[in-house]
Each structure stands twice: as structure tokens, then as C-alpha cells.
Amino acid sequence: MVMQIKTKTLHRSVSLKATVHDIYEARIDSKKHSEFTHSQAVKHREVRGEFSAFDGWASGKTVELIPYKKIVQKW
Predict the structure, then answer these.
(1) Is 12 a residue whose pLDDT tops 90?
(2) Domains in the chain, please, with CATH?
């Protein structure tokens, strides 16, 4: 028996008091992301690069990068 699970697409928008440069780096740099979240993160700075965050709890691939403008990831 195959179980069907309904899923939804989640879009999230957040406002932060920080520079675009600092936010981008905190999302794409392993060391800075780990410092920001207080958990282990492994990030790569290229499209199709795999990543993990929150001590391995979340993982995925980077789909699109426009430096200091856009990060699209598939979690």
C-alpha cells in the first residue's frame, strides 16, 4: 500500500537589520552560518552544491545564486 502525502510549497520572507552582504554571507558561508545559528553547517558557494545546516537536521542543494542578491535552495 502506497501512502499519499499532500505537500505545499512554502515561501518565507523575513526582514533583518543587517547589510545585504552580511545576510548573504551568513547564508552561504559554512563558518558564518554556524556562528549565526549556533549549530554545524556545511555550505558550498556554487550552484548544484549540496549543503546541510542545523547539525545535519536540514539539507539540500543550491539551485541559483546571484551574489549578494539571491539564493535559491531546494531543502
Answers:
(1) no
(2) 20-74 (3.30.530.20)
